[in-house]
Design goal:
11 helices; 394 residues; binds flavin-adenine dinucleotide; FAD/NAD(P)-binding domain; single chain; 2 domains; D-Amino Acid Oxidase, Chain A, domain 2
Amino acid sequence: MQVVRRSFDAIVIGGGIHGASVALYLAFHGLDVALLERDRLGGHASGVNAGSIHHIPRIHLELPLAEAALSSWARIEQLLEDDCGFRQVGYLKVIESDDEMPDAERSMARARRYSGIPEILLDRQALADLQPGLDATAVGGIFAPTCGYASPARTMRALRRRLDGVGAVVLETSEVRRISRQHHTWICETGDKNWCAPILVNCAGAWGVSVAGLVGEHVELCPVALMMTVCGRVKPLLNTVVGLHGRRLSMKQPQNGTILIGGGYQGDVLPATRDTRLNGDRLAYNLALARKTLPALSSAAVVRMWAGIEGITPDHAPYIGSSLIHEGLWHCFGFSTHGFYLGPITGRLLAEAIVKQEVPELLRPFALDRGASAAASSRAVDGVVRENQDEQAK
Ligand SMILES: Cc1cc2nc3c(=O)[nH]c(=O)nc-3n(C[C@H](O)[C@H](O)[C@H](O)COP(=O)(O)OP(=O)(O)OC[C@H]3O[C@@H](n4cnc5c(N)ncnc54)[C@H](O)[C@@H]3O)c2cc1C
């Protein structure tokens, strides 16, 4: 068999939002880049997620990066020549009872301590003024006006156009099956082709661990299947993205009038086929919670449900940084349910780190050796599953 060999300055493995963003910024720095994607660009989590552009105060490691991410979305049209469906409509977390108030205040204090992301505490009246039609028993809310949502599919299409525009080579149906190294050059094998470069970036999402394993680097990650529901078009009901402070829910109404419902409820991952199986009970719970929160939703018909595969790390923060055992290898995966909104900013900062050989301050908390012990890891990964079950017991 004749093996075709092509050389680049950098190879990025994985065509999700992170691989596409870092490839784009590397190309902006003048590097000749190849992006190798096993299936199709945006075919996994990055193309099928809920599109919320929203920080998670409980992951305080991430808050400074989250603040920068929100600013990068406000400029997304300049970067991608497409607004990517980004709407800065804010993000509201409804507080269901007075008992939740102390925790809501703690969560706001945490967000303030680690970032300048504005959040406003709403009382019952302010809540009703901001978002009419909510369950009348709700007592208040936390509103983050600089958050919002974007369209994942549109964002991935815009990234593809920009990558083509800057001359990056994007190869779909190109699974990296073997990685070797000759002197300072990485060689990625995809069937009868070898792709070579001195810089290799692992952006393989929930499969980041397998790609790291190809070069003997071991990290922990738990793949999960996150489920979504979409209801058919209804009259305008939602002014903002709506979630709950104490329970898992997110609801948004894009301009086409449909209602997108999520919250991190899990189905099953079928590893052999990279497919997922939906869990009907959990979807029903998620839908019931949405209808309780916004009673007018009861008349909206469900039109589709699906799941996408995401990788969760032990401490729910991503791995971003250089390999601990190889030079010229960088990792960027494990975004633990909140990687869509971090895509553009992480791509910019990681490309800068690679080119300047110095990791910017905002990425330093995500180094691979940040030190979760194996025991703590398994507890945390377990916790993801437990959280999901506890949620449904409420
Ligand atoms: C249903 C759902 C809802 C979500 N909602 C939100 C949300 O509202 N807001 C938010 O910020 N985040 C959300 N997320 C999380 C977010 O989608 C992910 O964190 C983010 O998309 C991860 O991007 P990625 O580029 O790291 O991974 P992916 O998008 O999974 O891309 C990784 C790519 O690597 C490829 N790959 C793997 N192995 C190889 C190989 N050997 N060779 C070549 N290619 C390979 C895969 O085919 C895949 O396309 C959600 C996720 C899901 C599933």
